[in-house]
Design goal:
Blueprint: E1 6-10, H1 15-27, E2 31-35, H2 39-47, E3 59-62, E4 64-67, H3 68-76, H4 94-107
């Protein structure tokens, strides 16, 4: 695992999450897309001090580990125009953006 590499760790049992992962790879082929359940993902997160993996959480690793809405905004920073502009919402308060993220995470299986 390279130090400056980008990793998107997602729930590969969720069709909605899989669609987002495929979209992300099309946006930026430099992003490594891994199932959060994989041994490599677990090892990567463990190397950053994360021992418990929450399947309701998306992880974006780029030097540091970003979770939930911060992971989404970090991912968006590495996408093409016009999607990149959505990363500006990262300046909103974290409780607000994580609230929206959690609503989406809670309902994602309904959208399969």
């Amino acid at each position: 695992m390279e130090q400056n590499q980008m990793y998107l760790l997602y729930d590969d049992q969720c069709k909605f999450c899989c669609a987002i992962a495929r979209w992300a790879k099309k946006q930026n082929t430099d992003i490594e897309i891994w199932s959060v359940r994989s041994a490599d993902s677990k090892e990567l997160l463990k190397s950053h001090g994360i021992n418990f993996i929450d399947l309701q959480t998306v992880y974006f690793v780029e030097g540091a580990v970003h979770v939930r809405s911060r992971a989404a905004f970090q991912l968006l920073r590495h996408t093409r125009f016009p999607w990149r502009w959505l990363s500006l919402f990262r300046f909103l308060p974290l409780p607000l953006t994580d609230f929206v993220y959690n609503l989406i995470a809670k309902n994602r299986y309904r959208w399969n």
